[in-house]
Amino acid sequence: VYCADCGSMMRLTRCVNFKANQEHLRCGRYADCRSDCTAHFIRTCVLRDLVVGEINKLLTDIHADEDEFINTAMEHSASIHFDEVKKAKKTLAKCDKRIAELDRLFNKIYEDNALGKISDERFEQMSKGYEDEQKKLKADSEKLRTFIDETEQRTSDITQFVEIVRKYETITELTPEIMHELVERVVVHAPDKSSGHREQEVEIHFRFNVASVTAIIDSREYDLRLRSA
C-alpha cells in the first residue's frame, strides 16, 4: 500500500489500546520526517472492505466471460506500457550509440598516443573518462533491456492471472496470499473533507496491469453500514 503524494509505503499503526476499527495505515515518509508529506491515514478495516469488494467484482467479470476479459486486459496493459516501452527503447538506442562512439574515440586516442600526438598522461586521463562513461552506459543499457523485456512479458502473463482467478469463486477474507496473487499495489490519497465529512480516493492496481480501479471511500457511510449490519 503506497502514499499517492510521495510514493512511500504506508505503515501499519496499531496499539494494544486500539479497537479493531482504529488500526490504520499512515504515510511512511511522514513518519520519518513530518515535513516530507502529510499525516494522512486510512483505517485498515475500511481499506480491507474496499479491496475485497473490488476483487469480487473482478472475479465476477472474469467468470462471466474469460475471453472478453483477456481481450480487454490486453488492451489495457498495452496502452499503459506502450509509451513507457517506447521511451525506454529510445533511451536504449541512444546509450548503445554512445557506447559505440566511445569505442571509436578510445581507438582514436590510442592511435594518437602511439603516434606521439598526445602524451601518456593525457591518454590515461581521457581513456579513464571514456571507460567510466562507457561502464555507466552499459549498466544503464542492461537495466533498460530488463525493463523492456519484463514489461513486454506482462502482456502475455494475463492468461496466467486468469488461471489464478479460477481458484476463487468469491472471497470473504483478504489474506496475504490473495493480495500477492491478485493485487500489484494499492495507492491511497489524502482525504478530502470539503463535503463536510471524510472522503478518500483509493486506487487498486491488479497484477500484470490487467485492470485498475479508482474508488472514493466515505468513512461515515462505512461506519453507518457497519452499525446497521
Which key phrases capture this entry?
4-stranded mixed beta sheet; 229 residues; 7 helices; alpha+beta
Explain this structure to me?
- This protein is α+β, with helices and mostly antiparallel strands and about 230 residues long.
- The chain has seven helices and seven strands.
- Helices cover about 60% and strands about 15% of the residues.
- Helix 2 crosses helix 3 and helix 3 packs antiparallel against helix 4.
- The protein starts with a strand and ends with a helix.
- Strands 1-5-6-7 form a four-stranded mixed beta sheet. It has a three-stranded antiparallel beta sheet with strand order 2-3-4.
- The protein is elongated and about 90 Å long.
The structure class reads alpha+beta
Major sheet details: 4 strands, mixed
Low-confidence stretches: none
Into which percentage range does the β-strand content fall? 5-15%
Strand order of the largest sheet: 1-5-6-7
Helicity, in percent? 55-70%
Query: In DSSP terms, counting alpha (H) and pi (I) runs of 4 or more, how many helices?
Result: 7
Shape call: elongated
Mean pLDDT: 86
Query: How do the SSEs run, as a string of H and E?
Result: EEEHEHHHHHEEEH
Distance between the termini: 27 Å
Strands, total number: 7
Q: If you compute it from the alpha carbons, what radius of gyration comes out, rounded to the nearest whole angstrom?
A: 26 Å
